[in-house]
Specification:
Layout: E1 20-23, H1 27-33, H2 38-43, H3 52-55, E2 80-84, H4 91-99, E3 117-123, E4 126-132, H5 143-157, E5 160-166, H6 173-185, E6 189-194, H7 203-206, E7 217-218, H8 227-237, E8 253-259, H9 265-273, E9 291-297, E10 300-306, H10 319-334, E11 337-343, H11 350-361, E12 365-371, H12 378-391, E13 400-402, H13 414-426, H14 431-444, E14 457-464, E15 469-474, H15 480-494, E16 502-508
């Protein structure tokens, strides 16, 4: 017998198993909803218990955790190959050739790659990590010196080194300076003579014997000539690699650091990692490729990805900025939660709002970090609160953390905020509980009239998670304002802090007059 204080499923009439018109519904929704049948509409509550067996059919969505291309979940013992060389010799092009896809940003100007960027590569069924580096200049100054330092660090952490030289130019003073460092490092070195596009140019590679690193191997990163044989040499130089893994789910939760240029994304990654993992410079746009790092926080691993600052809309970007923006968007798609950094010392900009909208439309959990809090005074904080109240109405549900990546202030508070957002992103509300709530809500505040008729909500269910997706079965169209009201009320009742919530309708078509039953 039902207890008096126990929520009771509403005694709603079962919707007809006839035709429905989808509003805000796409193919992915249809695939997730195919598990529903007429009995689900009639029973409604028990068939959607929140046990693992009952919810399994609705949780297989694009956001589900699993192996994600582009993120390097490096297991213990997986060998590492560092790709080094002076600027503009084709290192990133060769990395893309090794990976079999265009993941590294490439442009025909020096200095495009700056950070150490790790990728997961597979050859002959064996996996290894490829680390792309910026141009290594022996007598560099300023930002170029930081780039060279990152390349040296990549060599120290690698099991083998792929030294790329432009065979058409021959060995330069910079190449010889790098070769001296590599000889002292004591690591296996494969000397790649790049830009040997045909057999008649192979003699150009022979001059590179002077570097003292053994036989140069002629290759063309642009055309792929000799790349397979080069990878065979790489596997011979690397220690035994683990076999390629298939279908392994899990791993660290994936966090993308997103924001405008120069808001402190790389500084935050370095503070969390406890080392200079990414280049930091007052010059906007220092980061080009996404830089990822596994960091243990709160007793468990997290994969943080530092992304290039989003300057403007993709169509307005050019050259390396355009491809950096594409890779930032791709990193967001592969992430589970995004930390959007906003410069608290400056007024909110339209670009900040566009970035927040991009994260919400991508369906990712969201945490907003107001960085450079140490540079704000009482007056600025007062005006910031007013800006947030006025401009961020669409993301008031996102957890907010006031931090300083420079000093480390409140950085530890990011973990509880991330855990809250991800828990909401994964949350499922049982159908009976959802329908009991929606019945009370509609009785208190009915939908507005439309064309002289009042639409009715016959049934509601949560069709998916990551992010939560609520489907309303109705007799008519619900206005946008009423759907926003439902979303706000849903958050007040069930939480969902830190995640977007998708509310769509399935509208029952009217039966044609005189139709045969």
């Amino acid at each position: 017998m039902t207890q008096p204080n126990e929520p009771v499923a509403p005694a709603t009439r079962a919707p007809d198993a006839g035709r429905w018109v989808d509003a805000g519904w796409d193919d992915a929704d249809e695939g997730a909803f195919d598990v529903l049948d007429e009995e689900d509409f009639q029973d409604g509550d028990d068939d959607f218990a929140d046990g693992p067996e009952d919810s399994a059919g609705l949780t297989e969505e694009a956001g589900a955790a699993g192996p994600v291309p582009g993120f390097v979940d490096t297991p213990a013992g997986q060998p590492v190959l560092a790709v080094v060389g002076r600027p503009n010799v084709g290192k990133s092009t060769l990395v893309n050739r090794i990976l079999g896809s265009r993941q590294a940003v490439v442009q025909d100007v020096p200095g495009v790659t700056r950070d150490r960027v790790a990728y997961d590569a597979t050859w002959r069924g064996r996996t290894f990590t490829v680390v792309d580096t910026g141009g290594w200049e022996a007598r560099a100054r300023g930002l170029s010196a930081q780039i060279a330092e990152q390349a040296k660090m990549a060599v120290e952490l690698a099991d083998a080194v792929l030294f790329v030289v432009d065979a058409r130019v021959g060995a330069t003073d910079e190449d010889e300076a790098v070769a001296r460092v590599l000889r002292r490092a004591g690591k296996p070195v494969i000397l790649a003579a790049n830009k040997v596009d045909d057999a008649k140019n192979e003699s150009d590679a022979m001059s590179l014997w002077s570097l003292g690193l053994g036989e140069p191997f002629a290759v063309s990163a642009l055309h792929g000539r000799g790349s397979g044989d080069l990878l065979d040499l790489v596997l011979d130089a690397l220690p035994e690699a683990p076999p390629q893994r298939f279908g392994i789910a899990g791993g660290p939760r994936r966090v993308a650091l997103i924001g405008r240029p120069n808001v402190g994304k790389s500084s935050l990654l370095n503070k969390l990692a406890g080392e200079n993992r990414a280049l930091v410079s007052p010059v906007a746009g220092t980061t080009r490729d996404p830089v990822d790092e596994v960091i243990e926080l709160g007793g468990k691993p997290w994969r943080f990805v530092d992304t290039a600052g989003i300057k403007r809309r993709f169509r307005e970007s050019q050259g390396a900025d355009y491809y950096s923006a594409l890779r930032t968007s791709s990193a967001l798609d592969r992430a589970e939660v995004a930390v959007v950094l906003i410069d608290a010392s400056e007024p909110l900009t339209d670009q900040d709002l566009r970035i927040l909208t991009m994260v919400i439309e991508a369906g990712r959990a969201l945490v907003i970090a107001y960085n450079k809090w140490d540079l704000t005074d009482e007056e600025r904080r007062h005006y910031l609160e007013r800006e947030i109240e006025r401009a961020l109405y669409s993301a008031r549900w996102a957890p907010r953390v006031n931090i300083s990546a420079e000093t480390g202030r409140n950085v530890a508070k990011l973990v509880p905020a991330l855990e809250t957002a991800l828990a909401s992103w994964d949350r499922r509300v049982p159908t009976g509980q959802l329908n009991a709530w929606i019945t009370r809500l509609v009785q208190a505040t009915p939908p507005p009239l439309r064309g002289g008729r009042q639409p009715k909500i016959l049934f509601a269910t949560q069709a998916g998670t990551r992010p939560p997706h609520i489907v309303l079965f109705t007799t008519g169209f619900l206005e946008e304002t009423y759907r926003r009201f439902i979303e706000r009320s849903l958050r007040e009742e069930f939480g969902f802090e830190g995640t977007p919530v998708k509310v769509t309708m399935r509208i029952r078509e009217k039966k044609k007059s005189g139709a045969r039953r």
